[in-house]
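Let us work through a complete example step by step.
Step 1: write down the sequence.
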Amino acid sequence: MLAVSTLSFGIWAMSKTAQVASLTATMAANTIAHRTALTQSAARLRAKARLRRFIVAVPITGLAFVAYFEEHDYQEWLQDNPDGDRTKYACEVAIITAEVLDEVLQELPENLQPNPNSLKRYITCED
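Step 2: predict the structure and record it as tokens.
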């Protein structure tokens, strides 16, 4: 009886070890696929931003593309905020832009840094 129990536990342990090895390999493959997807997504976003900067740098066509990109961004925002309007969108964009600009300005040397949130105090939005 002891030999049969030992043999069955040995087989059970080997099957569990194989399952763990299989799950570990699957997890590693999924992690690599996820990292690749994130890297590609980030590269696409950087390329898109670079293209926007390049197009906007051309004066006359730049104005047309700025309007196009803003309208496109507004339509995407509107899908996530169906009860929103252009005023709410402009307010949200202004607040986010002010936050990012404040972060960028904080990277300047200390004697050139403005007060934190210096731009946000000029933005008045009604909720």
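Step 3: interpret the result. The mean pLDDT is 82.
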